[in-house]
Amino acid sequence: MQILILNGPNLNLLGRREPGIYGTRSFDDYLPELRNAFPELTIEYYQSNHEGAILDKLHEVGYTYHGIVLNAGGYTHTSVAIADAIAGINAPVIEVHLSNLHAREEFRQKSLLGKHCVGSISGFKLESYRLAVQYFDSLRPKRLGFKI
Q1: pLDDT for residue 147
Q2: Residue 12: strand, helix, or coil
Q3: Number of folded domains in the chain?
Q4: Residue-by-residue pLDDT tens, the chain, 148 positions
Q5: Do the Cβ atoms of 76 and 120 come closer than 8 Å?
Q6: Which distant-in-sequence residues (6+ apart) come within 8 Å of 86 by Cβ?
Q7: 50: CATH
Q8: With contact defined as beta carbons under 8 Å apart, do 33 and 73 qualify?
Q9: Are the CB atoms for 87 and 23 separated by under 8 Å?
Q10: Residue 143 Cα distances to 37, 101, 128, 131, angstroms
Q11: Active site residues
């Protein structure tokens, strides 16, 4: 099973940016731990601060991967284009956020993407990603009792 973790703007600063909100670990430090927890999955990672690059990646993998874990950062609240891309691809998308959006500023409490996703996970810092990947792992045919 191929899973893409797709991070948007400013998430390259994890571990350094507002650690009280986002934690003290970088995603690069966390990714090997996540991959080790799900050895039967192929977990790929991509991060961009550019909306167009995020759209290109969604289009690239959206018809071949089994799932996408998307933290669109600030684009969550502003990008009709990313919402349209999610609606237009076949791969299921889970929206994740490190902080609890409902406990943040009012403008952060509205997601343009969520209605096109199979689910949303927020508030568990980096563990939000593990929870999303765990969902996709639970869908593996072998785990459901089928032969691959």
Answers
A1: 45
A2: helix
A3: 1
A4: 999 999 999 999 988 877 777 778 899 999 999 999 999 999 999 999 999 999 999 999 999 999 999 999 989 988 999 999 999 999 999 999 987 776 566 766 678 999 999 999 998 999 999 999 999 999 987 654 544 4
A5: no
A6: 58, 70, 93, 113, 116, 117
A7: 3.40.50.9100
A8: no
A9: no
A10: 15, 32, 22, 16
A11: 22, 97
Please report whether residue 120 resides in a domain: yes
What is the Cα Rg of the chain in Å?
15
**Do residues 34 and 3 make contact, with C-beta atoms less than 8 angstroms apart?**
no
Beta bridge partners of 4: 44, 68
**Is position 26 within any domain?**
yes
* Residue 35 in tokens: 């991959």
Look at residue 22 and tell me if it is in a domain.
yes
pLDDT recorded at residue 100: 74
Residue 67, domain extent:
2-138
- CA atoms of 57 and 85, how far apart (whole Å): 10
**Segment 106-110 long-range contacts (CB within 8 Å, at least 24 positions apart):** 107/77, 108/76, 108/77, 110/77
Q: Which residue has the tokens 């050895």?
A: 39
pTM of the model: 0.89
Does 144 fall in a domain? no
